[in-house]
Amino acid sequence: MKEISPQMQNQIAQYQQIQQQLQVLANQRVQLESKLREIDGTLEELGKVGPETTVYKSIGTILVRADDRESVKKELEEHKETISIRVRSMQKQEKSLGDRFEQLSQKITEALGGEPAKGDGS
User: Fold this and answer.
1) 32 Cα distance to chain centroid
2) Closest Cα partner for 91 from 22, 40, 34, 20?
């Protein structure tokens, strides 16, 4: 069995760290995408109800009657835009980390005497 150099150990540690970061980012992105779907559904329902329907908005742990329906809609749309920007940013981070992850994976595999990984075949 080959002796693993300190440099290789460092690369393996980086590989594991990037893998964890990718998992955290993916989980956060999924949560934000879920919030986006929830906001879309809320906006859709808000558009369906008539002007005579009372609308409430959540403030902390309580619901408060919202007299200005348009301001509620505007708040939701602004929140949706903010979340969309965060999701796009996370996707860019995921791509960058994914590329680095693949580079390290190939370096580690080659250094340990294996064939470079070309994918999992699926």
Assistant:
1) 6
2) 22
31 assigned to some structural domain: yes
Range(s) of the domain holding residue 73? 6-111
Give domain status of residue 105, yes or no: yes
Per-residue model confidence as pLDDT tens digits over 72-87: 999 999 999 999 999 9
Using DSSP bridges, classify how beta strands 55-59 and 62-66 pair: parallel, antiparallel or unpaired: antiparallel
Mean pLDDT calculated for residue range 113-121: 57
User: Does any domain span residue 119?
Assistant: no
Measure CA of the first residue to CA of the last residue in the chain; give whole Å: 30
CB atoms within 10 A of CB 71: 11
Q: At what angle do helices 6-48 and 69-111 cross, to 10 degrees?
A: 160
Q: What is the pTM of this model?
A: 0.78
Residue with structure tokens 């002007």? Answer: 51
Q: Is the pLDDT of residue 122 over 50?
A: no
- Residue 63, SS3 per DSSP: strand
